[in-house]
Amino acid sequence: MKEQRPANSTDPLLVSGNLKIQAPKQLMDSTKLINHFSKHIKLTTDEIELINSLFSQRSLKKREFLLKSNQICRTESFIFSGCLRTYSIDENGFEHTLTFAVEDWWTGDLLSFLTEMPSFYNIVALENSEILQITKMNLDKLYVEVPKLERYFRLLIQNAYVTQQQRIIQNLSQTAEQRYLAFIEKYPAFLQRISQKHIASYLGITPVFLSMLRKKVSRW
Amino acid sequence: MKEQRPANSTDPLLVSGNLKIQAPKQLMDSTKLINHFSKHIKLTTDEIELINSLFSQRSLKKREFLLKSNQICRTESFIFSGCLRTYSIDENGFEHTLTFAVEDWWTGDLLSFLTEMPSFYNIVALENSEILQITKMNLDKLYVEVPKLERYFRLLIQNAYVTQQQRIIQNLSQTAEQRYLAFIEKYPAFLQRISQKHIASYLGITPVFLSMLRKKVSRW
DNA sequence: TAAAAAAGTTAAAGTAGTTGAAGAAATTAC
DNA sequence: GTAATTTCTTCAACTACTTTAACTTTTTTA
Q1: Straight-line distance from CA A209 to C1' D10, in Å?
Q2: Mean pLDDT of chain B
Q3: Domain residue spans in chain B?
Q4: Gyration radius of chain B over CA positions
Q5: Cα–Cα 20 to 30 A to A128, which of A39, B8, B32, B184?
């Protein structure tokens, strides 16, 4: 999943989307992904080659879905460029944003990916995006062949876990105004990239109320 | 941290408390902990012995603190018996409960444990409790000596992560009444063990409002 | 086992955030 | 490049939840 990682710059989380594996094995630039792994573990050239062979690249156009609810999330995706939003739809048809995920982060629905059960989430591209995807089968293989990656993913999810925890405490203890101010402080770049409607659904308020908060806050 | 693991029966999370290592190395019954590890990975008798040597046992009386805010969380703790609550205190002095942790779960403040920075949380025993603690140094050693445990902890935190994610979505999308009903469904045993005041602080409402909800709900 | 303290209940008044509706601004689509 | 659609803003009426306060019940202490 992507979650509150927005703007945590260094460390994303973990999730994935479903998709058909790309047919033509085109040469892909996984430099960014390898760099990312390399922040936590050291890889040999053989290992890098294996990694390259187990990920497949995919492009998503703005508004295209990586995952729709009730589908099984077949891959975890590393985001190369672009921005994706994970959200659920409640019984009244309202959307609630779990995460925004941008370059150098992961996205997907971890629960669905692990259990191979239908997902409750939708993942949609907010911008044209390039991602690298790995299936559960290939990831399991990778854990066996490159056990060091077990460490990378443990660290990745540990960070994501801590970030989520902070979000829970914020939601319990702060007003909407405080949460909005914390959001723009933590993820300033998102203000330019993401619509207020979506930010409101991440903060747990209506777009109308967010607009009122912005007016209030901007007066000073 | 313990968190929304309440009642997820099989899989806890991860956190710890600070403490002085117990002086006399008493024989300890780590059967429960070993069983727990064994659900996910297979251990040799040598490995089991090593594990026994790296954990230390501690007893906490009801109301005793495992961690106080601003302290560094020096250990992660596996709970043998009892119940602990992790909470933060906001600027107005209100408490917000992040997690309840009971038998077979882990507790601690993962961020503080990992970074060795002061914690924002308090962890207190709600009942007399028995725990097994491990320091960062010993856990790092364990990862080296028994790399399989890297896997156990990855799975542990993955589960915790997914549970947290569900809590975030619930907080965004449900009313207090819905959250209360979901809580008693997910963690029925907690109703007998944990005060309403603390449940309210977990749900993000006041004790007064929880009392009103209970009255309303009990009418049918 | 009695006194003190803490937790839970009830009710009335207050407030943070929602709803609905209408217009303005920005974005999308042809 | 203009019409259609979506997003954002503003306002007034509304509601879910909080606050305060007084009372009752349960738990703790000694």
Answers
A1: 11
A2: 87
A3: 1-173, 174-220
A4: 18
A5: A39
